[in-house]
Amino acid sequence: xxxxxxxxxxxxxxxxxxxxxxxxxxxxxxxxxxxxxxxxxxxxxxxxxxxxxxxxxxxxxxxxxxxxxxxxxxxxxxxxxxxxxxxxxxxxxxxxxxxxxxxxxxxxxxxxxxxxxxxxxxxxxxxxxxxxxxxxxxxxxxxxxxxxxxxxxxxxxxxxxxxxxxxxxxxxxxxxxxxxxxxxxxxxxxxxxxxxxxxxxxxxxxxxxxxxxxxxxxxxxxxxxxxxxxxxxxxxxxxxxxxxxxxxxxxxxxxxxxxxxxxxxxxxxxxxxxxxxxxxxxxxxxxxxxxxxxxxxxxxxxxxxxxxxxxxxxxxxxxxxxxxxxxxxxxxxxxxxxxxxxxxxxxxxxxxxxxxxxxxxxxxxxxxxxxxxxxxxxxxxxxxxxxxxxxxxxxxxxxxxxxxxxxxxxxxxxxxxxxxxxxxxxxxxxxxxxxxxxxxxxxx
Length: 444
Ligand SMILES: *[C@@H]1O[C@H](CO)[C@@H](O)[C@H](O)[C@H]1NC(C)=O
Ligand SMILES: *[C@@H]1O[C@H](CO)[C@@H](O)[C@H](O)[C@H]1NC(C)=O
Ligand SMILES: *[C@@H]1O[C@H](CO)[C@@H](O)[C@H](O)[C@H]1NC(C)=O
Ligand SMILES: *[C@@H]1O[C@H](CO)[C@@H](O)[C@H](O)[C@H]1NC(C)=O
What we know:
The structure is a single chain. By secondary structure, the chain is an alpha/beta fold. The chain folds into 2 domains: about 15-35 and about 85-240, no CATH class; about 260-435, 3-Layer(aba) Sandwich (Rossmann fold). It has helices at about 35-75, 80-85, 90-95, 100-125, 145-150, 150-160, 215, 230-245, 250-255, 260-270, 290-295, 305-325, 335-345, 350-360, 390-405, 415-420; strands at about 15, 20, 130-135, 165-170, 180, 205, 225, 255-260, 280-285, 330-335, 370, 405-410, 425-430. The strands form 3 sheets. A 6-stranded mixed sheet has the order 1-2-6-7-3-4. Helix 10 (about 260-270) crosses helix 15 (about 390-405), helix 13 runs parallel beside helix 14 (about 350-360) and helix 15 (about 390-405) packs across helix 16. About 40% of the residues are buried. One 2-acetamido-2-deoxy-beta-D-glucopyranose binds near residues 102, 157, 160 and 161. One 2-acetamido-2-deoxy-beta-D-glucopyranose binds near residues 352 and 442. It comes from Skeletonema marinoi. This is O-fucosyltransferase family protein. Keywords: Membrane, Transmembrane, Transmembrane helix.
């Protein structure tokens, strides 16, 4: 009998390997606080390792920025049609000669195996098809949007290597399909509620984040699930050392396309701000990140830390302006609405743009834009009791930044993910380790 996995009965967790915990659906992970502490510690470690890699990348991309301009201009994108970039057709991705052959083969293999699984189950009530599930169940601690999504190209590579069907299932704040959907001819990663029988030996073996997902995925478990792996840097090394160019953004779009409601929001925002793909650049400002100077001042407060915050924000815009001089627009996104408000309403940039327009000197002035910032972007892990639609803006900003040419970002994975989605070739960090600023000179 096929029953909804939602109603699967909790069983006691049993340890199957030293570093793997078998976690049947619905079981709360009690008594693992030490694990969480260790996880947090390793997460922070992994984070800083990630930063180091980023800084090297930036130093390179900084030098290559002007070269990147050339490359992108000749990419032949139909800029009048942002929808074709927003829902980048699968055929276009797979025909990109930069995308390795295994990706094309995996798309076809995934389709066949997924079908085989359903056929097997109908005919025999069992199947030897194996799965790798990226999950965020109700009681999982999945982190923010980038924690949940940034490893996906790596997961695809691992699923390919270990002959597993890659699936994605979220229950918090709602199904991922509310925001992102697979394309019809792409990789169908959805997990319908009745996909796995209730009462079988299928255990949802969970590989905890501090464990070796790579090793576990090669093991025997039929269904292996993972929350976040911190393996984005492995995929970056693979791109750099083996593929020889960035393919992350292509793989991501092969998997994820905006849902109808997300798509119409993105398009109406881009239309109202007159943003053409690749003709604008973006600035991401993660301001509420608890760096020492903020923590020691009793936590984030725009009013109290205004001079510090506006200094960071001004520098960030300078970085974007250096990265992409004379962009038509610079799109600003932040976890602090007050910071956006400051930039768009009070900063020198707005005064100078007004002056420049008056004197018809558009060239040198920086035109900042943002979508409605009256409501702050909530953190998908920390914000409580919100309706799923209230997280839409977080996805909206991610995609809009990802359709621009360059991204200047600060702390945190979200800005880095947006930068990767923009193609990863024209990227700069305006704030690095521990929140320190990478000083950019004012555009002239
Ligand atoms: C399918 O198999 C499970 C055990 O693996 C069993 O509990 C269930 O009743 C079976 N369903 C059918 C329709 O045979
Ligand atoms: C993907 O799987 C194929 C077939 O197993 C293998 O030849 C290829 O090397 C894999 N790709 C990567 C990047 O590991
Ligand atoms: C994915 O598969 C499910 C059935 O398992 C189906 O209902 C859905 O339409 C498929 N989605 C796409 C985009 O093919
Ligand atoms: C704004 O214009 C003033 C005067 O023209 C100039 O000194 C200043 O550097 C400009 N500021 C920015 C942020 O461009």
